[in-house]
């Protein structure tokens, strides 16, 4: 967000600091699963013993986001609600004005697919594909109360408006049920530089093997679609 503000893409009237709300922070073991607060920082997730043992792909992904200083302040909610990205959108004001802007910001055409009618900016968050492996649900809160939905329903296939959050809603927590036994999970990504950069593509995998046979296989992707 701060980079987009500096580039003139985002121009909020004010920013609200949420870390002073203790109910939105921490990793809680509920017995039948865990709850991760929306303001829990990525470093804490990467170092969490319960995540590393039971939700390995999530811990790996949290430890792969950007660099150490970013993970010290970046949060679960921030990574899940990350704006979509595009080479024609994430540029300086001067660059975008010289290229006639784009559909996502002040323009009338998507330069990725000029003949199309929608924005093809991609979602590049690391945590979403790993959390989807474990049937994660997100808890949202706003002026009309709270609601809880599957994580997959937080997103839609629209680069301009990819989140289903309504006005004044916050992502306050993620809920993960206990995973079954005998599964292995992991996460890997490709990026231009080995640190800091967003993934060009990331893949999360969950696999269960019983008696030498794969009985369950799930794959989640990031960086390849608005979803």
Put the structure in a nutshell.
The chain has 227 residues and is of the alpha+beta class. 22% of the residues lie in helices and 25% in strands. The strands form two sheets. Strands 1-2-5-3-4 form a five-stranded antiparallel β-sheet, with no helix packed on it.
Description:
The protein has 227 residues and is α+β, with helices and mostly antiparallel strands. The protein has a single domain, classed as Uridine Diphospho-n-acetylenolpyruvylglucosamine Reductase, domain 3, CATH 3.30.465.10. The protein is built from eight helices and eight strands. The protein has helices spanning 2-6, 42-47, 49-54, 56-64, 68-73, 76-80, 93-98, 127-132, and strands at 27-29, 33-37, 137-142, 145-150, 170-177, 183-190, 201-210, 213-222. The chain has a five-stranded antiparallel β-sheet, with no helix packed on it. A three-stranded antiparallel β-sheet has the order 6-7-8. The relative contact order is 0.16.
Helices and strands in order:
Elements: H1 2-6, E1 27-29, E2 33-37, H2 42-47, H3 49-54, H4 56-64, H5 68-73, H6 76-80, H7 93-98, H8 127-132, E3 137-142, E4 145-150, E5 170-177, E6 183-190, E7 201-210, E8 213-222
Defining traits:
three-stranded antiparallel beta sheet; FAD; Diverse_Substr_Oxidored; alpha+beta; Uridine Diphospho-n-acetylenolpyruvylglucosamine Reductase, domain 3; 22% helix; 227 residues; single chain; oxidoreductase activity; FAD binding; five-stranded antiparallel beta sheet; 8 helices
């Amino acid at each position: 967000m701060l980079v987009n503000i500096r580039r003139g893409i985002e121009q909020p009237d004010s920013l609200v600091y949420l870390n002073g709300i203790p109910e939105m922070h921490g990793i809680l073991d509920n017995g039948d699963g865990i709850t991760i607060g929306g303001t829990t920082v990525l470093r804490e997730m990467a170092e969490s013993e319960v995540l590393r043992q039971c939700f390995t792909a999530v811990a790996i992904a949290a430890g792969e986001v950007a660099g150490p200083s970013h993970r010290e302040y970046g949060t679960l909610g921030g990574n899940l609600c990350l704006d979509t990205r595009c080479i024609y959108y994430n540029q300086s004001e001067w660059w975008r004005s010289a290229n006639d802007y784009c559909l996502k910001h002040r323009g009338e055409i998507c330069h990725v697919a000029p003949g199309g009618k929608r924005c093809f900016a991609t979602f590049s968050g690391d945590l979403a594909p790993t959390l989807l492996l474990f049937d994660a649900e997100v808890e949202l809160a706003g002026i009309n109360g709270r609601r809880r939905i599957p994580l997959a329903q937080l997103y839609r296939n629209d680069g301009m408006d990819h989140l289903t959050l309504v006005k004044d809603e916050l992502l306050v927590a993620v809920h993960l049920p206990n995973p079954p036994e005998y599964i292995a999970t992991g996460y890997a990504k490709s990026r231009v530089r080995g640190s800091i950069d967003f993934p060009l593509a990331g893949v999360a995998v969950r696999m269960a093997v019983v008696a030498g046979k794969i009985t369950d296989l799930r794959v989640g992707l990031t960086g390849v679609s608005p979803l």
